[in-house]
Amino acid sequence: MGNSVVLKGNLLYSTQLNEITALPDHYLVCENGTVSGVFAQLPERFSGLELRDYGDRLIIPGLVDLHMHAPQYTYRGLGMDMELLDWLNVHTFPEEAKYADLDYAQRAYEIFVRDLARSATTRISLFATIHREATELLMELLERSRGVKALVGKLNMDRNSPDYLREASAAAAAEDTALWIAQTRGRFQNVAPIITPRFTPSCTDALMERLGRLQRETGVPVQSHLSENGSEIALVQELCPDTRNYGETYSRYGLFGGEGCPTIMAHCVHCPEEEIDAMQNNGVFVAICAQSNTNICSGVAPVRTYLNRKMRVGLGTDIAGGAHLSVFRAMVDAIQASNLRWRLLDDRLKPLSVAEAFYLGTKGGGAFFGKVGSFEEGYECDAVVLDDENLPHPQPMSLIERLERLVYLSDERNVYAKFVAGQAVDL
Ligand code: GUN
Ligand code: FE
Fold first, then answer.
1. How far is the CA of 289 from the centre of ligand 1 (A)?
2. Consecutive 10-residue runs of the chain (427 residues): their mean pLDDT?
3. Which helix (H) or strand (E) holds 293?
4. Taking the mean position of all CA atoms in its chain, how far away is CA 280?
5. If you placed Cys at 3, which of 33, 107, 153, 278 could pair as Cys (CB 3.0 to 4.6 Å)?
6. How remote is the CA of residue 366 from the centroid of ligand 1, in Å?
7. What's the rounded Cα separation, in Å, for the pair 334 and 318?
């Protein structure tokens, strides 16, 4: 089997929030894409499997990016001097409009998919654009590259968007989304659709209602944005005066978690108490996107509040609000933002530790994809082999210290090998 393999090296992974398990010179056994166990000595019954010995390198679970905009990869690092709504109008919408042109989409998405394969990310939930054909193209390129397992969303936008990036009506948008789901669901091994109302300001009630119906008919998961920025929240209140909070603009149409509706909400920076209660009750996943929240001046999400409530939390890079594809970088950004929040805003909310951020970027976000993000038995075997030889040190370091340095200092050059559900990736 192509996806049965034994990996040997220094294993590091989370089983719980505040602790990283470090096993020097161990064997990670993967059968049919799933972890059969970790062992100090390889049991005889696995001796027939292919063995890949990575020596003194570190082997960690693949990283998980719960929120990223694939078409925005082209302008990452540009135009970072505005707040959300202006930034969308000036930079984002003109760029996304280009994906009506399949040649442009092909060129742009090829670059993104190549870089993503080389990264330490093995699972990702992506926003595409409103264009069905370009979105299918992105899905095909991801499938061909085999560099990650991905959820991909064709966007829905039927209001408050420029003429050149607005769907003709609620019915047209929802019908196009339904057609796209019918054409892509079950077609790929590594890629699947996710229902994606861009955010409440760009979706009429009529469109949300149709998307809710489509969700119930298909069981396809949902992603969107929530309570990211003050002006955005004020706009939502103006557009939906009969709701008590932003979350309700999704929940009243069945697009906010609960039985049969797995949901990711990105940001959650300024959620009022009742909205947090609803997210908690419905098992909504929060995607913490700290770098984006800094770049476009949104604020700092109260990640400790969510963790104290045992809510489901992962990390997002949110390119191009964030400028970096690395989930290691997202861990560092989340830690740094939590440090400042604790120091400047609320000293009752303890900052994140490295172990906690590592958990969020692996097992925390991985839970959205099933048993993903750890090396516990029964987990899908997503693994990344990291080489830290280019980070020499005059003294020996513990495995945890070596991992901590890689969280802060690594880039794609440190990714030595990568496996997605046991399948080796061409880097
Ligand atoms: N809210 C609606 N669209 C977007 C987007 O493209 N990026 C971010 N950060 N927030 C959004
Ligand atoms: Fe976003």
1. 11
2. 90 97 98 98 97 98 98 96 96 98 98 98 98 98 98 98 97 98 98 98 98 98 98 98 98 98 98 98 98 97 98 98 98 98 95 98 98 98 98 97 98 97 96
3. helix 290-295
4. 19
5. 33
6. 22
7. 13
